[in-house]
Every structure is written in structure tokens, then in C-alpha cells.
User: Fold this.
Amino acid sequence: MILENGVIRTMEPSLPTAGALAIAGEWIVGGVGTHEAALAPPDRVDLGGRCVLPGLNDSHVHFPTWALAQGEVRLEGTRSLEEAVARVRDALGGVRQGGWLRGRGWRSADWAPVVEPTRHVLDEVTGSIPAILTARDSHSCWLNSAALALADGDLAVPGGVVEVDSTGEPTGVLREESCWHFRDRYAAATLEEMVEASRAGIRLANSRGVTAIHDKDGWLGALEVFQRLDEEGSLLLRVWQSLPYERVEELAAVGLRSGFGSPLLRVGYLKAFMDGTLGSQTARMLDGSGVQITSREELEEIVRAGVRAGFPVAVHAIGDLANREALDAFEATRPEWAPLGLRQRIEHAQLLTPEDVPRFASLGVAASVQFSHAPSDRDMAERFWAGKLAGAYAFCSLWESGAVVANGSDAPIEELDPWAGIVAGVLRTLDDRPAWRPEQAVTVEQALVATTVTPAWLARDERRLGKLVPGHYADLVVLDRDPLACEPGELREVQVVATMLAGRWVHNPPPWD
Ligand SMILES: [Zn+2]
Assistant:
């Protein structure tokens, strides 16, 4: 197949653009003029002046959770507790007999007045139907009394917070480990629910130009979900799968190392958490506030266990102290992991002290960030991190320091929409307001590298993914225009026209006129 009459952005600096692209089977075989001697008359696709980029790669997504969230009550954008409760009331009709009412996306800091939710306000509308409403950052959940009753008072776990009222009774809000423990124990979706939702989610992701993801739902059974989809032929994106670090000894015991899998699904890295989040005010800070999930010493042991088993580690760190301790742990263990070429990463890296910014590059630890979090968190960051913002969402500083910067959505916290993330990284605003801390904006080119080339590198796939050069998979997205030739104000209008995975159209095959 020849894609011609458009702009091919190869992402390869030695040949940044080509006028046409030749594809044979699953692979890119060459640029302009290389096809004549190759195969019998190729299919010709007229790009009509459109632009082709490598398929978009989302470096941080909770895929089954995001896919399930497409069918849940969505509380994003609610402006008051009453509005959130009203949305729950409207959704009750869709709950099947004996089932849960599940929802997500609330953020009490967005409500006027700012108020913490309680089980009592939920009970008034839900009655005896158990309800679990996950906060936008996934680090808190809001339950009603019917849900809480399932735990019979057994809510406290290490690293967790059980909010209580003045009489010592649980308010219905659980944070961190308490929230996750409850959800996993009592409110988890079944494997079948996850498979079904993910099958539909893949189509939606393909329609947004996504051909690869780094999944974070390994602890939830995502590996099995994706394996089932792979078996039935509906895994239409490449997955670099996380697994919880707690299982590392089992992986080592059977000799399963990072990189094992199929062309579409590979076991990738271990996931751990240093702290909570900005929104739940559980990020671990140098001022002493926040929640510690993993200590520096514990992370060192996790990294060492990863070395023994052949796995890199991705550790969630939001607060300035959490990031410092994660960097300290990678530094202390560097002689053990660096010679193995393990591609270690810190997820989010949201608040850094200025002295910690250059350590990502000097240690060789990637910053796996979410461009879209900067403009969507701006108000909370101004409020909770006032006076500390010099190293907050410091994407440009990280880039200029030489760090490996990868971009993800953190869906369902933000939508799984890499183009929206790219625009957020460049414009640093989501609304009519001027850019937030515009000195930390990245260029379109940098945003594209962080969404194509870098994630491929992190997944040890740099020789076959992330660029449109011969020998790479024909994973690509067709855009309606060339984003590198757009005015900044036009970037939001760029549309995904079609998506190809391994030489096969997975969204909107041509012709397009
Ligand atoms: Zn996440």
C-alpha cells in the first residue's frame, strides 16, 4: 500500500518529512519511490494533503477502568454537591437488580461551597442500592450506607484514611489504601464486565488515533482482560502492561521477565506508589503534609527486587517529598539497575523542587507526565501549592534538562484523548484564560515526541515503533492537517481522520472524500 499526496511526519530527525509512505503487510518498507521494484500493483491511498504521524501512544492509562467509566455516572464538572447528587438520582434507573451504582469524577474542591460529601446525602436518593463514587483523582471514594455496611466497620488499612464525623462514625469518604481496599474487596467489576467494556473502549481509543498504551491496571487483572481480547482478535492496540510490585517474587519464580508477550501485549514494568494526590491533599510534601504509601527504603527494595526479576519500576510520585525520595531510591540503586538498561520511570512528577528537576536526566529516570493535568489542575495547584509552583508541572524545564519526558492521559482522570493532551501541553490552558505558567509549555514537536517516540522507547520498542521509517510497524494516524504547520490557535481544531495498526485500518478506512 502506498500513502501519497500528503505530509508524512516520520519523527525521524534525519528525514523529518516524506511525501509518501510504502507499507507491506504489517511494516513500513520505505519512503517515496521505494515501491516500484517491490510488489505487484500496490493499493494507492490519496491523502489529499492530509498529514500522517506515527500512531499515538498513551503512556499512562488505566484502560479497563476508563473503559468501564464510559458506562458509569460521570460527576466531572459538577459545581455543587447537590448537582452531583442529582446526577446520581438520574442514573438510578440504569442499575440492574442487585447491582452497584458506580460513578466517578467528583472533586469537592470544585464545588461551591467547598464541602466534603457524606453517605447521608447519598442515602436520601439511593436508598438500599449500594453506591460507590470514585473521586476524579481515583484516590478517594464516596460511599453510601448500603455500601459501607458490606464492610461491617472493617475499613481501616495501613496507608488509608477513613474520614469520620464528630461522633466518630465514618462519613462515607475513604481515601488512598482504604478506598482501594474497599473497592477491590466489595465493588470490583467482574472480568466479563472489564472485557466487554474494554472491547468497546479500544474502538473509541482507535478513533482518537491511539495505537498503543502503557496500562496501569495490572493490579486489577488487565493482563487477563487484554489477553482475552488478543485471543479473540479484538486487541487493536499495543499494550505495555504494568503489574503490581507485590507480585514480583511470583514473576521471578516462573522466570517471567519484562518484555514477555505477543506483538500486541507485553508484560512491561512494576507499579508502585509513593504518595497520594493533589486533589485529595494526600500528596507527600516537604512541609510534612500528605500520606506516605511507600518509603524511600521500601522503594529501594522494590527496585532491587525488580532488578533480580528483570523488571523496571514505574512509581507514582506527586508531592515534592515523594518525588525527592523516589529519585533518592533510584540514585541509591543505580549501580544495580543502570547496567541492565532498565528504563525506570516516575509517574506524574507533578511537584518538584527546582534542585530535583535535573536529577531525572542525570540519573536516567524518565518523567512520565500528563500534559493535560497542568491546565486542569491549575486552580487547585494555586490554592494548595501556593509559593511552591516553580517546579510544578515543569515539563519544559524537565525537557531542557535532558530528561526523557513521556506524555499520558491518566484516563479516566482525564479523557483518553492524546490530541487533547498534546494541545494542553502546548497551550497550557483549557478555557478562555491565558496559558498557566506558559514558561513550562512544550512545543508541538516536543509534545509529539512525548506521545510517539518516547513511549516506544520506554517499552523497549524503539527499533519498531514510534517513527514512520522502514522496519517499523505501520502504526499510524491520519490527521486532517499538519499540526506542525498550524497556528497555535488552530491546534484544537485538528481532527483524527483515520488510524492504522500493523498495516490495517482500525478506524475510518479510506477513501475519505
Ligand atoms: Zn494513574
In short: The chain has a mean pLDDT of 95. Residues 320-337 form the longest helix (18 residues). The CA atoms of residues 89 and 266 lie 41 Å apart.
